[in-house]
Amino acid sequence: MRQMHLVGFLQAQNCTNLASSWRHPESRTDFLRADYYQEIGRILEAGKFDLAFFDDRLSMPDRFGSDHHHTIEHGIRCVKLDPVVVLTMMAAATRRLGLGSTASTTYFEPYHVARCFQTLDLMSDGRAAWNIVTSLNDGEAANMGHAEMMAHDARYDRADEFVEVVLGHWDAWEDDALIVDKASGRFGDGNKVHRLDYKGRFLQSRGPFTVPRSPQGRPVMIQAGSSGRGKKFSARWAELVFVAYHDIASGRRDYDAFKAMIAATGRDPASVKVATLCNPICAATRAEAEDRAALIEKLPLEIDALSLLSEALNFDFASKGMDEPFSDEEMASIQGLQAIRDRVVEATGKKNPTVRDFITGSGRGRPKMDMVGGPKEVADKLEAWFEGGACDGFVISATHVPGTYAEFVQFIVPELQRRGLFRKDYTGPTLRDHLGLQRAVRGDWQMQHAAQ
Question: In which residues is FMN bound (predicted)?
């Protein structure tokens, strides 16, 4: 029986992706300590989650009013730790939970990313995953020494080369290249470690790579591009894709269309898992969950939405009045998360929405309140999405930490297991085992793309 996949959506920062989560009375506030993240890891592993995944940005939101003071004052994603370092601490506190982190193809070097994630994969016995992002706002560009963000499609063109370099390095060592025989004095077989010598339009990298292969061959690759170019990139490279579908009907259409894109690249659509974002608010009973939701709904502030919209769309929302429409030129100039802009236009039916329309139409800074209930109610909704052909699993977002994860594991996971929709135990030690993926074989990605 087909089983759903579950991902814990995390941030190595003072809040979750919901900026107001730190204000929740039950949220832990020791987010600068390893145990904060290790407890989350232990909870997710007890719930047999596939992996814990860290989103990341390389700047704090400071586009609104061209100033960071409001970000600090209101705790709007202002503390951002290095997620890979945090993952190593979580790895030490878990044995089976997958460990995924974001790393930018625009601002990092492919050799560094390859070494970092392959090392994490070895240190965790084959549980690592790399979330491939191209980065999206000018704040990140400024922090990383660039005058401005690269054009959208050019970032993905460069990212294609970046992934080729990373995969090439991950394929450098054959599985039996290491010998480590003290008696003969032979450490390894030099003929089984290969130099890359990559030269592309954007990137070049020589090698040989310095990290041998891991128990799962190489880290799992994650992607979440939502634009047309982003989806094309995902279809070519990703093994796990994160989406934010809005309802089952449109989700099913997008899911089917994306799986068709994967098939068109010569890859097996079943080898790419699609998980949609959800914000469950659950408790032992529906009444208790509704009480929790009422509290959570009061936490977000208007400044949260204005700050996060400015960051995501690379446009200073302080420059316009709340009820002032965006001009055609302003709408066309948005270069960040264009999917947000398109969603607002669709939701409001306005070609030129106002600032207030962007707040209400995007839902930025507020959790969706469409999955509130006890075990039966929440499991019914998850099952409807999953059995309705709209996804292969779910990315569980938190309204407070660690309570959201603990409540989901306590109340929802057992109900999903009772229905036969979710595993009762891990079937193997590696993340590829959890996702139902074969161990990565050297050169398999080249063979897949040769068929295009």
Answer: 56, 102, 152, 156, 226-227
* Residue range(s) of every CATH 3.20.20.30 domain in the chain: 5-297+368-450
Cis ω for the linkage preceding 402 (within 30 of 0): yes
- Distance separating alpha carbons of residues 165 and 118, to the nearest angstrom: 13
Assign domain 5-297+368-450 one CATH number from 3.20.20.30, 3.20.20.80, 3.40.190.170, 3.40.50.410. 3.20.20.30
Q: Where are the alpha helices (DSSP H) in 298-374?
A: 302-313, 328-333, 338-348, 355-362
Mean pLDDT by 10 residues, the chain (452 residues): 95 94 97 98 98 94 92 95 97 98 95 98 98 87 83 89 98 97 98 97 97 97 90 96 94 96 95 96 98 96 93 90 91 76 87 91 88 98 97 97 98 98 97 97 80 50
User: Three-state DSSP class for 411?
Assistant: helix
- Residue 241: which H helix or E strand, with range? strand 240-243
The reply to whether 102 sits in an annotated binding site is: yes
Is 226 annotated as a binding-site member? Answer: yes
Q: Is 198 annotated as a binding residue?
A: no
- What element of type H or E holds 278? strand 273-278
Q: Cβ contacts of residue 316 below 8 Å, gap of 6+?
A: 63, 64, 65, 66, 310
DSSP state of 410: I
Q: Assign 55 to helix, strand or coil.
A: strand
Residue 234, annotated as binding a ligand: no
State phi, psi for 281 to the nearest 5 degrees.
-120, 105
> Is 146 known as a binding-site position?
no
Cα distance between the two ends of the chain: 31
C-alpha span between 290 and 281 (Å, rounded): 8
Please tell me whether 156 is known to bind a ligand: yes
For residue 108, the model assigns a pLDDT of 94
Q: Counting Cβ atoms within 10 Å, is residue 13 exposed (0-12), middle (13-18) or buried (19+)?
A: buried
Cα 232 from Cα 235, distance rounded (Å): 5
- SS3 call for 204: strand
pLDDT of residue 290: 97
User: 248 and 384 in contact (C-beta within 8 Å)?
Assistant: yes
**Predicted model pTM:** 0.94
Handedness of CA 419, 425, 431, 437 (dihedral sign): negative
Provide the CB-side half-sphere exposure for 44 (13 A, CA): 32
Contacts of 307 (CB under 8 A, 6+ apart): 19, 61, 63, 64, 70, 71, 74, 76, 365
